[in-house]
Amino acid sequence: MNNFAYRARSLAGDETIGYRRGSSGEEVYAWLQDHGLIPVEVVPIISSSQTKERTVSYKEPKYAELAAFCWQLATMLEGGVLITTAIETIAEDIQNPPFRHALLSIGELIKKGESFSNGISQFPKVFNSLFCATILAGETSGSLPEVLRRLGDYYTRRDKFAKKIQTALAYPIFVISFVFVILIIMMVLIIPRFRLIFSQMGNTLPAFTQAFMNVYDVVASNSLVIVVTLISFVVLFLVYNKTHEGHMKLCKLALRLPLFGRIASQAFIATFCRTMATLLSAGVSIIESFDILSEMTNNAVIKDAVAHSKENLIEGSGVSLAMMKTGFFPNMVTRMVQVGETSGTLPVVLERASDYYETKMDTTITTLLNLLGPAVIVIVGVGVLVVVVALYLPIFSMSDVTFT
Q: Can you tell me the distance from the alpha carbon of 14 to that of 339, in angstroms, rounded to the nearest whole number?
């Protein structure tokens, strides 16, 4: 329940000002009318906690949150619920404060006469251009619930898609982090103690152990230099990435990486096809669709391919030919797009192309994980073996001398 300040007039024309608790402004409007008053203005009273909530910076919600919002709003609109009531009801159950505040603000804007599409466009950090363009198309065509369901299905698929990518990256990141922590522990705690034991033994160390300790001494004595060098390398990398030429070269390199580059390109192709299918089905123009698609990647090579496709479209090329001229899109995609153009079923064909490339990406991720698992085990095993042999070889040698 919220507090509302209201201003109303009686049938005789007398003005009345007061306060009323209610779940929504519409409830207060109804209460005033039931009491023979003509509502002039109903304004929510913002508490200190709500004022703090306004200071929360907006950010794009998770795909799962957007999917749930779209499904719920579509269902309520189809059930005849007013859009303002539906948005306020959905907002009450949202745990994400910036998202909840944005929805409540949109509800207030709609009450003041703004359209839903204009309302969401006021929050570009919460609702991206794809969402805004699709909603505008749905409002224009009078099929908002249907468009919301399409968006709900789209964001559900994007959520599953993002989790697949996270799964592919989680394993190598975890293993590398684990090995790094183990190395730090060994260099700080374990190896210095063995060095003390070796010095007390007074014997000549085996060649393998001596070489290992020499490497350790070099790393330990130059640890600060190594850290500064690594930080400098990262800084130079970031600076180089900010230049146009450097960013282009690094983006090309990222796409050429074994397996990882293939996953990145397949992921974009799948997203490209799915997003364009959603936009075209909602009634968004093909030119505007390419504008939106260019914002869905940070890779400059892919951005250029989408931008050139749009330029080719403006010059009069068909969609398939415009994509083919860039040299980035696979032949299979351009051929399927050509079939969709010819038959007038481009959104359907794009959906099937997206399904195909998502399946290909799943296969690539499975191959990557199958290769990484044994490779990491072998690398870690060899590293552990080198350390164990180097540290225990002097002890074994001393035992041999004693028994002899």
A: 69
Ramachandran angles phi, psi of 146, nearest 5°:
-65, -40
Helix %, strand %, coil % for the chain, to 5?
75, 5, 15
Tens of pLDDT along 281-335? 888 888 888 888 887 778 888 888 888 888 888 888 888 898 888 888 888 888 9
Q: Which carries the bigger pLDDT value, residue 352 or residue 22?
A: 352
Give Cβ neighbours of residue 303 (< 8 Å, ≥ 6 apart): 294, 297
Burial class (CB in 10 A: 0-12, 13-18, 19+), 57: exposed
Of residues 197 and 48, which shows the higher confidence score?
Answer: 197
DSSP helix/strand/coil, 85: helix
Sheet holding 2-10, edge to edge: 15-22, 2-10, 37-44
- H or E element at residue 4: strand 2-10
Nearest CA to 393 among 229, 212, 215?
Answer: 212
Q: Phi then psi for 11, rounded to 5 degrees?
A: -65, -25
Residues 6+ apart with CB under 8 A from 179: 380, 383
- Find the mean pLDDT for residues 63-90: 90
For residue 5, name the pLDDT band (cuts at 50, 70, 90).
low
- Other C-beta atoms closer than 10 Å to the C-beta of 157 total 20
15-22 and 37-44 beta bridge pairing: unpaired
Q: How many other C-beta atoms lie within 10 A of the C-beta of residue 353?
A: 25
In angstroms, the CA 328 to CA 303 distance is 10
- At 181, list the tokens: 């922590």
Question: What span, in angstroms and rounded, lies between the C-alpha atoms of 100 and 85?
Answer: 14
Whole-prediction pTM: 0.65
In contact, 263 and 168? CB cutoff 8 Å: yes
Q: What phi, psi does 82 have (nearest 5°)?
A: -60, 145
**Tens digits of per-residue pLDDT, 134-189?**
888 888 778 888 889 988 988 898 888 788 778 777 777 787 788 788 878 887 88
What is residue 386's three-state secondary structure? Answer: helix
